[in-house]
User: Which sequence fits this backbone?
């Protein structure tokens, strides 16, 4: 399979790249700074560019089957600005499948199911900026014709891979407080072979 990974130099994205290369998939990584991706593999194609540049996105998408986005906010509106470009480029080359890493804040609240966690007292975060960015991405995906899945981890310590975690569609598993980067990456990566969570948000926690 030919996979485009966005956010490939980040904590989750870099592990997704490693998993895909382990299984001998062809991986394209669009990165601003190639020096941050210290991987040498014949199946890895590194493209220097920016997710906010339409031509860079289209170039990276020219020969792929699926997109995995592990982009984060970094206190900016990169997510909101880049997703329309990504979806437009996907449509142009007829790529349907996209898996993104979101946040548990955009899952439904157990306390008030009609609203999202970050909008309710269930969320303990003082700033809602990152959650609002991920909410914007969720809205853009729901309005698109893409086959999307948003993996929504709660607190993300580095940690090791365990393979032992709980998942729940649209909600964070009850009393879930954390999930490692490694387990989040592995679950997101698994979705390239699964249609179970198409057009769904998936909460993941221990």
Assistant:
């Amino acid at each position: 399979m030919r996979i485009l990974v966005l956010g490939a130099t980040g904590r989750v994205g870099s592990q997704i790249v490693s998993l895909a290369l382990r299984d001998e998939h062809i991986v394209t990584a669009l990165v601003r700074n190639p020096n941050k991706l210290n991987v040498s593999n014949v199946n890895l194609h590194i493209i220097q560019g920016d997710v906010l540049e339409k031509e860079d996105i289209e170039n990276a998408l020219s020969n792929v089957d699926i997109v995995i986005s592990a982009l984060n906010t970094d206190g900016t509106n990169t997510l909101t600005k880049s997703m329309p470009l990504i979806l437009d480029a996907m449509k142009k080359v007829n790529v349907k499948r996209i898996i993104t890493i979101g946040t548990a804040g955009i899952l439904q609240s157990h306390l008030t199911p009609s609203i999202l966690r970050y909008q309710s007292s269930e969320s303990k975060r003082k700033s809602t900026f990152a959650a609002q960015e991920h909410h914007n991405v969720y809205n853009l995906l729901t309005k698109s014709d893409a086959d999307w899945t948003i993996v929504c981890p709660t607190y993300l310590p580095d940690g090791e891979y365990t393979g032992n975690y709980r998942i729940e569609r649209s909600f964070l598993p009850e009393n879930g407080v954390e999930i490692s980067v490694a387990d989040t990456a592995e679950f997101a990566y698994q979705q390239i072979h699964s249609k179970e969570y198409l057009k769904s948000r998936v909460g993941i926690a221990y």
Strands lie at 2-6, 26-31, 44-48, 66-69, 97-101, 147-153, 166-169, 200-205.
